[in-house]
Design goal:
The chain has three helices and six strands, in the order ββααββββα. By secondary structure, it is α+β, with helices and mostly antiparallel strands. Strands 1-2-6-5-4-3 form a six-stranded mixed beta sheet, with helices on both faces. The radius of gyration is 14 Å and the shape is globular. The two termini are 16 Å apart.
Length: 130
């Protein structure tokens, strides 16, 4: 079972806390940020702006941020979107956990990866609580 740690996302400030998931010392979201093409960097800046709005409990357009309809396993999934980029995560008490990101072109594969990490994190957390 992987080891999971939550780390505050420094670029997001507001009433809600935004953390990123660290898996065995590696952060999938940081890796996503490092690997995206230069032409998408401005879209990532826009996603951070929307994250700050959400953290400040402000209303944002559904096209930029939305929850998936049902809470799978008791953890409500969300997605931040831009034209080409996606950022996936789950709710936590008092905030959000950003798990990973991806591109629109690889959305199905990225969603599968996100859900696998989410499920492993939830299992790990449930074992710790026993």
């Amino acid at each position: 079972m992987p080891t999971f740690v939550l780390e505050n996302i420094e670029g997001v400030n507001g009433k809600q806390q935004f953390d990123k998931l660290i898996v065995d010392g590696d952060c999938p979201f940081d890796r996503f940020e490092e690997e995206i093409e230069t032409c998408y960097k401005s879209e990532l800046v826009g996603i951070y702006a929307v994250m700050n709005e959400v953290a400040s409990l402000k209303s944002v357009p559904f096209a930029k941020f939305h929850f998936y309809d049902n809470a799978k396993g008791g953890y409500r999934e969300f997605e931040f979107k831009s034209k080409h980029l996606r950022v996936y995560g789950i709710e936590q008490p008092g905030g959000k956990i950003v798990i990973t990101g991806g591109t629109k072109a690889n959305q199905k594969k990225d969603e599968s990866y996100f859900r696998r990490l989410k499920d492993e994190y939830i299992r790990s957390k449930e074992q710790q609580e026993k």
